[in-house]
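step=encode ok
step=design start
structure_in=
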């Protein structure tokens, strides 16, 4: 059973999340202040900072959930797609579409994930989602090529997310149309997956001696 204190904390966090989400989506990261979020959530500024210490943490709190939703959508689409390259693209496509809807916030979110404080709670949660996504991409390739080594699969999964990150960064930082960014990503995914699946297998090198 949930205690009264736990229930109050959950409800306050929900109000903060909804207030931050509404304000960020309506006005953009640069225009929103933590004072506005605390007022909209009906909590004191000190209370807000117990849940998210900075505006960047509020951004990560909100867009981690958006990232999770995009990953779940991509997984559902990939499950219906037998071709490996198409399945990988199906996993990644929702991330680019979501970023195109909110370019300013998406660019800020990527920046905080890459360069935010390493001990920040919500940054760690976001990075965990990315690592899980990379692992799912590696698993897709392993199923298509059972002889793929763990090292090759891991590097390929990281590479596939990297080109997705770059596609989003280029789209949010310039005037590249969404359709062009998505088409470029499709081509890059196809090249990477085709290369991985058709490259002769070699054993992983032994670990270096200290």
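sequence_out=
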């Amino acid at each position: 059973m949930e205690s009264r204190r736990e229930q109050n904390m959950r409800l306050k966090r929900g109000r903060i999340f909804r207030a931050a989400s509404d304000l960020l989506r309506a006005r953009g990261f640069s225009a929103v202040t933590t004072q506005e979020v605390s007022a909209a959530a009906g909590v004191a500024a000190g209370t807000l900072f117990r849940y998210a210490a900075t505006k960047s943490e509020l951004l990560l709190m909100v867009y981690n959930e958006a990232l999770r939703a995009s990953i779940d959508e991509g997984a559902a689409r990939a499950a219906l797609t037998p071709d490996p390259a198409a399945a990988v693209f199906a996993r990644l496509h929702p991330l680019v579409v979501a970023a195109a809807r909110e370019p300013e916030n998406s660019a800020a979110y990527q920046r905080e994930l890459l360069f935010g404080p390493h001990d920040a709670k919500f940054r760690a949660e976001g990075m965990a989602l990315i690592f899980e996504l990379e692992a799912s991409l590696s698993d897709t390739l392993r199923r298509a090529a059972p002889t793929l080594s763990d090292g090759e699969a891991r590097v390929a999964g990281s590479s596939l997310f990297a080109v997705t990150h770059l596609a989003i960064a280029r789209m949010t930082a310039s005037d590249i149309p969404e359709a062009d960014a998505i088409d470029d990503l499709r081509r890059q995914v196809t090249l990477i997956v085709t290369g991985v699946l058709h490259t002769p297998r070699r054993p992983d090198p032994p670990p270096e001696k200290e």
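step=design ok
step=annotate ok -> The first helix runs from residue 4 to 27.
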